[in-house]
Amino acid sequence: MYKRLIYDSALDWVPYLAFGVTAAVFLLFIIRAIKLRKESADKLSQLPLDD
Amino acid sequence: MTTNATKITIEFDDRTVRRFMIASIIWGIVGMLAGVFVASQLNFHQLNLASWLSFGRLRPLHTNAVIFAFVGNMMFSGIYYSTQRLCKARMASDLLSNIHFWGWQLIIVSAAITLPLGLTRGQEYAELIWPINIAVALIWVVFAVNFFWTLAKRNEPSLYVALWFYIATIITIAMLYIVNHLSIPTSWTHSYTIFAGVQNGLVQWWYGHNAVAFFLTTPILGIMYYFLPKAVERPVYSYRLSIVHFWSLVFIYIWAGPHHLLNTALPKWLQMLGTFFSLMLWAPSWGGMLNGLLTLRGAWDKLRTDPIVKFLIAGVTFYGMSTFEGPLLSIRAVNALSHYSDWTIGHVHAGAMGWNGFMAAGMFYWLTPRLYGTKLYSTSLANFHFWIGLIGILVYVGSMWVSGIMQGLMLNATTPDGHALVYPNFIETLTAIRPMMAFRIIGGSLYLLGMIIMAVNIWLTARKGSPVNETREVAVIETNQRDTMGLKETFLNDPIACTFAGLVLILGWLFLPPGADIASLVCALVFGVLAVKRFQTGHHRWSNWYDSLLTNWLPFTVLTFVAVALGGLIQIVPTVLVNRATNVEDRIQQPYTPLELAGRDIYVSEGCYNCHSQMIRTMLPDVLRYGDYSRLGESIYDHPYQWGSKRTGPDLAREGGKYPHSWHYDHMKDPRAISVGSNMPAYPHLFTEKFDQGTLWKKIGVLTRLGVPYPAMSETEVKTKAVEQGIKIVQELETQSRAGAMPDSKIVALIAYLQKLGKYDLVDPEQMPLAKPEGVPFPLKPGIPDGYRTSAVTK
Question: Rounded distance, CA B175 to CA B62, Å?
Answer without folding.
Answer: 24
